[in-house]
Write a structure and sequence with these properties.
Number of strands: 14
Strand order of the largest sheet: 4-5-6-9-12-13-14
Radius of gyration: 41 Å
Oligomer: single chain
Structural class: alpha+beta
Number of helices: 16
Helix content: 40-55%
Largest sheet: 7 strands, mixed
Strand content: 5-15%
Shape: elongated
Distance between the termini: 146 Å
Order of helices and strands: HHEHHHEEHHHEEEHEEEHHEEEHEEHHHH
Length: 467
Amino acid sequence: MAGKRKTNEAGSTNDLRGDVLRVLGVLKVATADQIQRLASPHLTFRHTEKKTAAQRKEARTASHRGAANDLRRHGLAVDGGRTRGGEEVRLLTAAGLAAAAIDLDREPEEMGGMPKSAGRSGASHPMTVNETVIALIRPKPDLDRLTEQPAEAQAAARAAVDAPDGTGTLTSYATEVALPVKGTWKNPAVGSARADIVVIAPEAGVPLLFIEADNCTEEAVLIGRKFDKYARFFQRKEKDTDGVEKPMWRTRWSAPDWEWDGYERVHPPVLLVFHQVGKRSAKNQMQKVAELTRHHWQGTWDREDGYHSYDGRIPIVATTLELLREHGPAGPAFWRFGRDHREPLLEAIGNPRRDAALAHRRAAARERERRRAEQEAAAREARRPVCADCGRKFTDDRWKAVDSRDWIQPREPHPHLCEDCQDRAVAAAKQADADERERQEQERLRQEQEAEQAAQKAGGWLSRFRT
């Protein structure tokens, strides 16, 4: 026990250290509070007897702070400075990132890079990225681990469990992911994009989503230029392992095939999350960026079917961290550029009018197919043979058996009779043959008997003639 205590002086368990490795492997830099909320959300509802919020946070994050300290002693993590609010942040070393890759079952190049100025200047941007991930996942506490807590804490935890689900789990996310316009995934060229967050959660209806976080400190024109890089990346093509050339992003991530039966090729969606930290208005930022990027997202109206086509366009969606926290992915928190209302995430990144038109077309096609099948069935029934004896329609098997076009089938003795009538006809023919053979046999026996009798009479006359 003493040796173990010396190795992990903070007394952390393997599970706790694994929690810290995985969270930092995804987020790259985080506070103990963020690690706890993602890895052990049930702890949020403990220590309610503490008088102040600071004391409650101190208590509920103690285990993960200890685990981070032990990882630091093993050379897997380092202290990364403090946030503007005074919270200590942690980040992984190169060895820690490699260990996290093993825990997350990811290749090293899938881990993403470290955020710029991580741990410096208050880590304002990484904190917004982390809060965006937490608000999207909406981690749910394990109620079984709160049975001894006060009723108020259990009720709050139950409300969190009963709230709409978030999108994906921690392993559905990656941060600081390079999107090379030139170069390779591992060594992107200068001018490449770098996604703050990439989400892969097909089970939640989000096969691929890129996210950019902004603290309302960056000029709208600079945010707009990011989409020029995104467009160049989406348009870049490479040969896949099967030798087929396809968009480069499809060689790394799986996503549904081209949307509209091969005619509409929509790029993956990009979500902008604005956090009102800087002086710029989040609402004004959205409007300015929407106008600056119009050529990237604006579709063309299809009058016939009543929807916008976004062939070759990037679906761009915006929200604020405040709205995301309040409503979650399932609530009306997202504004799709070009629309006039907020929607849930899946509707915002999708095209409901096109989906409705597509569903209508498919339903119409199914109805046409049903009618065609009914007409063919009716025409076939009209051709179905009728038994010349009993008048019943032939079964499918009987019809096939008497079909003269099938030269493989043996010839039927009574092709104009149904199966039952043919059986009776065959049986009657066999009986008639048997009766005829019996009659012939009786006639033969009678003739033989008559011949024998005639011979006997002739013999008697000859005998008297001799005497």
